[in-house]
């Protein structure tokens, strides 16, 4: 039986001109996760990441903390959907930068609505694949793990959308339930699957064991 660990990237730069960049806290979250695993003797046989900067930076932090010397396989099918394109598909007017609690909530209300319509095939966000193709990118990575890494420990570093899609696929969840998983996943959170050549089985979702100490309470973030 193999083990697959899916990690959402550390805190990125929400509201900035370039979201695809870890914040200083996001870098610390990543290093702390790697150190936590090293303290417990967990080693990996293979690493797969999406091709976004925040994925590469998160793995670099994990590798620093854990003393890993592995070259990741880059899998673009593990990249996040374009949340701005999703929102523009249902709200083409410009939005103010979400720098207040109310604007933040408004942003995510629109995102939830846009995701629902994209998943149903009623909108096609510009520059994005169909939802069916997005799912295939994620499930293709799961298939690869089962076929190529039987009995091994595998690490995937990705984003909330692909990770919640993987969980939703394995559990047979509705699109609506998958969206709710997606919007609640925390930065640097770990989800675990056991797997054999035939299937994956979910063990944990959205856990932060490396931030469990009171001194890390302020390190828990969502965006």
UniProtKB/TrEMBL annotation:
<dbReference type="Pfam" id="PF00300">
    <property type="entry name" value="His_Phos_1"/>
</dbReference>
<dbReference type="GO" id="GO:0016791">
    <property type="term" value="F:phosphatase activity"/>
</dbReference>
<dbReference type="InterPro" id="IPR029033">
    <property type="entry name" value="His_PPase_superfam"/>
</dbReference>
<dbReference type="GO" id="GO:0005737">
    <property type="term" value="C:cytoplasm"/>
</dbReference>
<dbReference type="InterPro" id="IPR013078">
    <property type="entry name" value="His_Pase_superF_clade-1"/>
</dbReference>
<protein>
    <submittedName>
        <fullName>Histidine phosphatase family protein</fullName>
    </submittedName>
</protein>
<dbReference type="InterPro" id="IPR050275">
    <property type="entry name" value="PGM_Phosphatase"/>
</dbReference>
<feature type="binding site">
    <location>
        <position position="54"/>
    </location>
    <ligand>
        <name>substrate</name>
    </ligand>
</feature>
């Amino acid at each position: 039986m193999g083990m697959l660990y899916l990690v959402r990237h550390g805190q990125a730069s929400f509201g900035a001109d370039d979201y695809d960049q870890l914040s200083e806290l996001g870098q610390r979250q990543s290093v702390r996760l790697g150190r936590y695993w090293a303290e417990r003797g967990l080693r990996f046989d293979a690493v797969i990441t999406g091709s976004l900067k925040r994925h590469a930076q998160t793995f670099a932090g994990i590798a620093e903390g854990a003393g890993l010397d592995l070259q990741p396989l880059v899998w673009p099918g593990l990249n996040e959907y374009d949340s701005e394109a999703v929102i523009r598909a249902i709200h083409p007017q410009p939005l103010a930068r979400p720098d207040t609690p109310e604007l933040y909530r408004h942003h995510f209300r629109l995102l939830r609505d846009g995701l629902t319509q994209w998943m149903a095939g009623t909108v096609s966000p510009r520059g994005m694949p169909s939802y069916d193709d997005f799912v295939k990118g994620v499930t293709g990575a799961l298939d690869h793990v089962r076929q190529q890494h039987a009995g091994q420990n595998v690490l995937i570093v990705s984003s909330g959308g692909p990770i919640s899609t993987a969980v939703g696929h394995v559990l047979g969840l509705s699109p609506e339930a998958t969206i709710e998983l997606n919007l609640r996943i925390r930065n640097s959170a770990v989800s675990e699957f056991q797997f054999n050549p035939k299937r994956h089985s979910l063990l944990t979702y959205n856990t932060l064991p490396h931030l469990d100490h009171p001194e890390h309470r302020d390190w828990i973030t969502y965006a």
